[in-house]
Model the fold of this input.
Amino acid sequence: MAQAALKLDNVKKSFGDSQIINGVDLEVVKGERHAIIGPNGAGKSTLFHLISGLYEVTGGTIALNGSNITNMAPHKINRLGLARSFQITNIFPNMTVFQNVRCALLWNKGYKYSIWHLCDRLKKVNLRTEEILEKINLAPLAKEKAAVLTYADQRALEIGITIACGADIIMLDEPTAGMSNKETAKAVELIKSVTEGKTLLIVEHDMGVVFDLADRISVLVYGKILATGTPDAVRCDPKVQEAYLGKETVECSV
Amino acid sequence: MMENNTMENPKLSVGQVSQSQSMLPYFVKTGGLFLAAVFVAAILPKIFDSRFALSMFNQMGIAIIFALSYNMLLGQGGLLSFGHAVFYGLGGFGAVHVMGMVNNGDLALWTEFLPLAGGLFSMLLGFIFGFISTRRAATPFALITMGIGELLLASSLLLPTFFGGEEGISGDRMTGITLTSFKFAQSIEVYYLILFWMFVCVIAMYLLTKTPLGQMANAVRDNHQRAQFIGYDPHKVRTFQFTLAAFFAGIAGGLFALNYEMVTAENLGMVPSADILMMTVIGGITYFFGPILGAIFITFLQMVVSNVTHAWMLYFGLLFIGMVVWAPDGLAGLIMRHQPIWKANRMKRILPAYGLALAPALLLFLGVIILVEINFHISLSIDPEAPLSIMGISFRAQSFPPWAMGFTLVGVGYFLFRKAGRKVSRAWNTVMAEIKQEGV
Done:
């Protein structure tokens, strides 16, 4: 087995008295596409916030490529090679689409807080920005303000910003939420193409998307991982069927 | 010049992002505009050569730097500061003390570089105060800047050697050590120095908006949470932006010290802080050039209208409220809103409607002036019984006709203005629809 890109060890999180995450152990293997599924309120987004540093954990440890990142500031975790998107569209609304993506490249390309470079003159950065815009199909809208994009385009931009950071580990929080079927199919293609050769951790409600994308799936229920395995194994797990997939009997091919 | 957010685009047309304009006209246009501004500014004191005009131009130049530096916080960083004059005042004190040292022979520094000394002094303190106040944006930031302003105002009495107590610190700008042949005995020489620093600062602040820090300041303004997830620490971005804003405010303060040869603690208090906020907002914070317009316009009003009437602050307040309510993008926003119409060559289609609205607007305005002046005269003048004179017409403020006249003008003006307003918006909508249809 390859080295774990992301390893959670007995991670806990409580808000006041209510415990949202009850000791999660999770290992995401380098290069795999790993999906987290679970009913509403299971703590999927909270888990994402804990891994990416937005929330502080109450207990347990999180390791990124073997180094401890527990309770580190989000920007430091990002610099170590982990980028994430958000369930609610989280972009820079008053900047252009082009600027949105370019900003995400700046730190990774080493420009930090520079006041002696002009962004328009950074050829490599601008070329890379254009490449990413091509990839997420927003090149024709490069000059538009991000705020005026359609919902689906904003979701695509959200992914664009996430991948622009140059991180090896990409975390996507419900990338297809609120999309039509057609848009979802496009989004899945997009996710597949942009995460080529990277590690992907994805939260998703749409089972079609999950089974299409994921190499492995973890099921999170009441703040605990119920099962982890290949899509087929998870689908056939009686515990999972009972807790999540519902009463409808799922045909198992295994 | 152009909008903060989209101004870089014309240059990125290198790749697939196809643009309608190519690079050359863009540079010619902005460069041409800039050269024209330099030319106008250079000959301005030759055209208006009165003492009053010159002191106004000097104040305008200083205000332009100060307002643009304020917009580095408000417009570009989303940081509403209630104490930006702290760095204006401190820059002034820094410069005036250095001036004193030069005069005492403790230090040899060209007079032309005194503003820079003020800037560096403010920058140092700006870094310290910025680090403290920018941990959080929005309300906590606004309150902390207010607190720092009050703190410094209070400490001005505790540290008389630095702040000079109530009478402030005065200096003599004719140190005899200059780089150029200027002696700075006359205001006109100070004018050209202000002009030089103003253009340097405007260019520097404009270019700063295009640097990685400037871009990230916009990003943090828009969404500080997301900025963290692309590798940036919002606190650091804000601290650096704040430090640079303090630097430019300090240069403005240093020029103030040179111009007036005197700085008091009032220069770093709440009043100039509020003034610069209003100036910047009236000019418009979403466009880089907005604060320049605000600084020119408000300085003009401040100096001209305050000579004519005591109720000047009241008019200023009305103007500010009106702008915030009806034109939140400021003067710059009002102008830029016409850009598509201008480009489509359709200004002549809406100008008649504007002309129609102008007359009732003037009536309304006149009514307001009459009522305000009557009230001010009755309650605040030394002898309320003395006749009041507005635009050359003298009358008794207590008599009935002027009151009736005021209310009638306001009523009729308002009614007609509303009607004309509808016409304007109709004309506007038609023209915009046409432009959209043609896809200009």
